[in-house]
Amino acid sequence: MRVEILDPRTDPEPEYWARLRVTAGLRADWAWEVLAAQAWGARTVQLVTVLFDGTTPKAVVNAAWLGAPLHRFSFTGATSRPWFGAVHVRGPGSGAVPGWWLADDVPITALTETYARAMRRELGPGCLALVLRQVTEEQAAQAGRFKVVRPTERIWTFPVHEWSDPEAWLMSLSRSRRSNLRGIFRRVRENDGLEIRIETATTDLDVVRVIEAMRWNDDKYGGKLIPRIRVLTAYLQALVAQPDVHSTSYIDRATGDLIAFGTALDHPTVPIVRSWTQRPAAEGGAKYLYFYHLAKQVEWAIANGKRWVELGKGKSQEKQSLGAVPSDQAAMAVPIRPW
Amino acid sequence: MAWVRVAHCAIVWTFGWRALYRQVVRSSFATVPFYRERWALHGRTDPVMVAGKGERDGAVPAEELAGRLPDLVPLAGGSATPDPLRGLEIVLHQCARISPDTLIIGAAPEYHPRVVAFESTPDEPRGHVLAVGTPGQLAGVGQDIPRVPLVTFAERGSEGLLVDDLLGVLGGVRDCGNWHVDWPRVYARETPLGLAFTLLLQRSPRLVDIVPAGASGRIARCPQHRTPVIAA
Known about the structure:
A: alpha+beta; Aminopeptidase; 2 domains; B: alpha/beta; two-stranded parallel ribbon; transferase activity (chain A); Acetyltransferase (GNAT) domain-containing protein (chain A); transferase (chain A); Acyl_CoA_acyltransferase (chain A)
């Protein structure tokens, strides 16, 4: 297999990229300008690798090169040559989706062997391991003999294809959640002060306000040891400008303040509800908007004939009560043969 | 915290104004997304520090920062809101006679004990009074009250403090009649776009080589105080 390694920061978009995205069903976060903005904002080097069979792309991988020395609060030095480290395969800009796509006839060993060796050739003999995130159990079983597999947080998905209309979805929920949701719908309907703005491929989003809200969220969930990766204006602008990204802003009509913001990345069968951020309750935030937002996403997915809606990690109780189903995930580390 | 300021001035004197600026540039390139992207995008991966290299000598016009303030926060986090009166408490004391008994009308340092707003100015203020504000605000104050105008580059005359919405107070006219830069905290250099200012002590939002609108002139040394001034 031929291997092409690209750095989205400096390399131009390959001419096959648009076709590859359609074939592989890669969402808007894989658009080249979004990848470039993400790579500029990342602390480590981000590499996109395409594996070819002849001239046909058969696999694509997004990975970060975590080479020592790593710094918590600074970018990897422009001229630094890390001498040992690991390749961390994760979805661009999100840890809740796999960072690779394989054609149907390509086994996962293409990653642990062909890809791993290509990365070792590119990054030097210090590239010691490959870490894959969001691996399923079957995929982990197919990999070679030497590996470490550890379960990670489960991700949640709405089985939208099981519901014929929003009413069927509501009837599948528990009685208390159902009446709670109906109350929320009524509350939003009767709240004249709340403006809900749904935009697709927008270029005039007030990015600074959204990022301000996202930072409250970061401060709420961020750890002391490993900082949250901050979303940058260039990344958000590039993402919401994609034709298959829907952004929803909840705005207080009286003051013009942003109360909550969410994005959803479209896909023919499995769209993903990507980010959700809202003001703290003390500053005018409303917790019920999260349920309202998810309910609207379900209604939209049912109306557009989607099969699943991915929700990502965390908030298990809330997601379960809305009818989402969990799927087990694991992280797998594979050593890279140094010869 | 007076000793911190004294120690800082001593460091600047000892190791040089420019060395401190270079340290801020180095740290901004390593930790602030905006500068990382900007300085590296133009065909280079090292920060622009050498005069004459890079696009426009590395300077950023202030209007290009509109809507990008969150990207000026270093990776370690910090505020994204600039303070338009940053540095007032230091520069005002250098450029006007102020004692704790002075009644300041308008903009005053945070800790000053006697402050009134322009709207609630008493008709016959007693004691030592000083009015501080933009020329528009000062127009409504009595003619006999001493005043310190806060001017932008475009409004610069022969007195007052030089302010910018983004960078704060950059300097002011001292007793020698020259426009002094607040050099322990602000670095200034000449670029093809005009004078570019760097805040040496503000970590977030990080402002490096920013050119305010209409910032022309050159950097010289005051013959009396031996510190940097903005000439012409």
